[in-house]
Amino acid sequence: MTQKIVPNLWFAGNAGEAGQFYSAALPWAAAHVAMRYPDELPEFQKGFEGEPVVVDLDVAGFRVTMINSDDTFRPTPSISFVLNFDPLLFEGDTDAARAALDKTWAALSDGGQALMPLGEYPFSPHYGWVQDRYGVSWQLMLTDPTGEPRPFVITQIMFSGDAQNQAREAVDFYMSLFDDAAFGTVVQYPEASGTAAAGSVMFGEFRIGEHWFSFMDSNVEHQFGFTPGVSLEIRCAGQAEIDHFWGALSAVPDAEQCGWLVDRYGISWQIVPENMGELLAKPGAYQRMLGMKKLVIADF
Q: What is the CA radius of gyration of the chain?
């Protein structure tokens, strides 16, 4: 699968442990340490020498990057991950798909909390939303095999708080930045519902390349919003692409650091070169990167 955007999850010093946890808890999952901290670190990172800095997680071909750092940020349910337990993935056996969903739910619930209890809902005969022990949110859904096929993992973005009722505007903007983007199903609220305005998005889908997202305007007031605890990383082919996405997305100058930015809706992004690992392998490159806002390949 061509995945232009890679979700990044922020962990408080336990990304290596979390990689082992997800490898056991999720179907078709494996994690490996992709990069370690160098031996010489600035004062604010002392104690991480030689520890993992990046752990890559693959779930059924879907990539997630886990960042090992301090406890500055935490994920929130504003960006979650839908796991589609389609019976077609289990040789057409609905009972096997349900059993796999239940096993995954039990693993993710251990030390976590249910946001929507596992049960029957109008949109799925077997569904639940859980925030795991690390604060990462997952939606597990038994999928109708007669519907249009979707990948096992879909990134969901929920707009609430300061971004309430901006889901369609935001997604239109994001899609305008990519050449290969298209909508799937989009369902609007026919009338106002809680915090959701009439005509806002009850449920929507879009894809960038082969990477599917879902999006919605919440109709419930939440005490959380977007944070750098879950960021979206765009891997760029060269400096021109970095410049393109950085110029379009960055809207909070104080948030610009080491390739990170925050957009006009509050979502955190990382705009990085595809060969980031190769660039950071150069002597002194890590320290030079710490002094950058937008990443400049020639300065590594």
A: 19
